[in-house]
Amino acid sequence: MNNIGTGKINKWTSTLISGTNKLTLKDLQDQVIVITGASSGIGLKTARMAAAKGAKVVAAARNEDALQELVEELKAKGHAATFVKADVGREEDVHAIAKTAIEEFGRFDTWVNNAGISVWGYAFDVTNEDIKRMVDTNFWGVVYGTQVAVKHFKERDVPGALINVGSLFGDRGTLVQSTYAPSKFAVHGWTESIRMELEKEQAPVSVTLIHPGRIDTPYNEHARSYLEKQPAHRGMIYPPEAVAEAILYAAEHPKRDMFIGSQAKALELLGTLLPRLTDRLMERIIYPTQHVERPSKPREESALYKAGYGMHERGTNVGWMRKRSLYVKACKHPILTTIAAGVGLTVWSLAKRKD
Q1: Are 116 and 164 in contact (CB under 8 A)?
Q2: Is pLDDT at 6 greater than 50 in this prediction?
Q3: Does some domain include residue 94?
Q4: CB contact at 8 A, 112 and 33
Q5: Which residue is catalytic, options 122, 144, 180, 327?
Q6: Rounded CA separation 285/325 (Å)
Q7: Domain count of the chain?
Q8: Keywords for this entry (predicted)?
Q9: Residue 348 counted as domain residue
């Protein structure tokens, strides 16, 4: 009797710690994947990589010309794809994305909430109108996408993946993008909350939060700027394919979080363990690493209220351009990562003893 009880407790504890209902997701080659914000940057790269792996792609964004060009490109290579012109800040547009996917392919298996926009400027300089518009895209777009995706997965009763793209500034507040960060905090809080609710009811949904660091996309060019100098990332910058790699891995493997670049994970840890030190560091380094030495584009040219230019994966950022994220690759092999960490700790401990 005691052994049986212990077995049940161990099984329950294992399930509790793993934080998953052990869902099995389809291989990408057998999937229909919906990607918002697919006309440029991370979304564009993810669409191309997903199609190359055999997935059927449903691309959504506000730039219809770019979407049409993308779909024609994918079809010319023998891939199945369709597009939907949509503003994710409008609930009816998000429903139209789901409807198109179902009418075209009969279903969707992964939904990627990627669309996003930023405002560069100090918080008290930015108008409430601009903040609300940004939140419509960054937060409400994720809420609407989550609702239609979860409803679809539950109705089909077939495991599906919901992937929300957050930010390193969703884990830690910042300067200059101080109105953007709260919109991503909201995405992180929403994702964690609905993940727990869905796990509790054992719904057939894998929920992943993506934490990108500084990524080389046109995101800075699309942003509305209140700065005198043009917004841009400076320093260590990761390619959009590193984010796409993490997204597509999560589409096949249930993952709670995927951090893009050690900088994203390091900022989260530093902000948690040493918050005041992190405040001071960011007060010194953020502003000079968030612009380049040329005049900022006029606000009316931003993509806050209209579609930005499309079909560009990379932006105009400057600095150390990484070719990949080793941290993403490590996260895809957690056992090897744990072993490596254990070996590293052992070596460090032995070295300390010798000292």
Answers
A1: no
A2: no
A3: yes
A4: yes
A5: 180
A6: 22
A7: 1
A8: Oxidoreductase
A9: no
Over residues 98-120, mean pLDDT: 98
**249 catalytic residue (yes or no):** no
Instruction: Quickly list H helices, 168-308.
Output: 180-200, 219-222, 240-252, 262-273, 275-285
List the one residue out of 25, 41, 257, 26 whose CA is nearest residue 163.
Answer: 257
Q: Please check whether residue 229 lies inside any domain of the structure.
A: yes
User: 83: which strand partners?
Assistant: 59
pLDDT tens column, 112-167: 999 999 999 999 999 999 999 999 999 999 999 999 999 999 999 999 999 999 99
Which residue range forms the structural domain that includes residue 318? 15-324
- Burial letters 323-351, b for 16+ CB under 10 A, else e: eebebbebbeeeeeeeeeeeeeeeeeeee
Quote the CA–CA distance of 332 and 313 in Å, as a whole number. Answer: 24
CB 51 within 8 A of CB 81: yes
Identify each DSSP E strand in the chain by its residue range: 32-36, 56-61, 81-85, 110-113, 119-120, 160-165, 205-212, 224-225, 229-231, 234-237, 257-260, 291-295, 318-321
Name the nearest CA neighbour of 144 among 87, 210, 193.
87
**Total-model pTM:** 0.88
